[in-house]
Amino acid sequence: QVQLVESGGGLVQPGGSLRLSCATSGFTFSNYGMNWYRQAPGKEREFVTAISTGGTTTYYADSVKGRFTISRDNAKNTLYLQMNTLKPEDTAVYYCNAGSLYWGKGTLVTVSS
Fold first, then answer.
1. How far is the C-alpha of 66 from the C-alpha of 60, rounded, in Å?
2. What pLDDT, on the 0 to 100 scale, is given for residue 100?
3. pLDDT at residue 59 in the model
4. C-alpha distances out from residue 97 to 14, 73, 113, Å
5. How far apart are the C-alpha atoms of 38 and 30, rounded to whole Å?
6. pLDDT in tens, 59-106
7. By the 8 A CB rule, do 107 and 7 touch?
8. I need a surface site. Which of 11, 72, 78, 86 has the fewest CB within 10 A?
9. CB proximity list for 24: less than 8 A, separation 6 or greater
10. What's the pLDDT tens digit per position in 14-46?
11. Residue 2: closest CA among 31, 36, 28
12. Is the per-residue pLDDT at 49 higher than 90?
């Protein structure tokens, strides 16, 4: 059974940092490009960042470039998202995605003072 479980969300002040994790099981993690998406209240889900199977290639939405870093540990079947200099507009549910096929249930990030 495929599982993607996000964790690490929470409430943080503007300018703060959070690190999200996505623990996976039930598929060969190292064979899949991985993505993070987010959905803010009242908005559509949007792409945030992607990483290649080996972790050597990454892509970022312009809105997070320079502030967010995606990484992966294929030995641990886990995806990460380091988020720095957070802004209120980063408030959203963050979803882990495997190869545009499998989705986690999301973790809520709230950036507010």
1. 9
2. 86
3. 98
4. 26, 15, 29
5. 23
6. 999 999 999 999 999 999 999 999 999 999 999 999 999 998 999 999
7. yes
8. 11
9. 2, 3, 4, 5, 77, 78, 79, 96, 98
10. 999 999 999 999 999 999 999 999 999 999 999
11. 28
12. yes
Residue type at 84 in one-letter notation: N
Structure tokens at 74: 């294929």
Residue 38 one-letter amino acid? R
Helix (H, G, I), strand (E, B) or coil at 4: strand
- The rounded Cα 99 to chain-centroid distance in angstroms is 13
Q: What is the DSSP string of 11-67?
A: EE-TT--EEEEEEEESS-GGGS-EEEEEE-TTS--EEEEEE-TTS--EEE-TTTTTT
Q: Which two tokens stand for residue 32?
A: 């899949």
pLDDT at position 88 is: 97
Residue pair 97/103 in contact (Cβ under 8 Å)? The answer is: yes
Q: Can you tell me the distance from the alpha carbon of 54 to that of 33, in angstroms, rounded to the nearest whole number?
A: 8
- Residue from 9, 2, 71 nearest 38 by CA: 9
Q: How many CB atoms sit inside 10 A of residue 38's CB?
A: 23
Q: Are strands 10-12 and 107-111 parallel, antiparallel or unpaired?
A: parallel
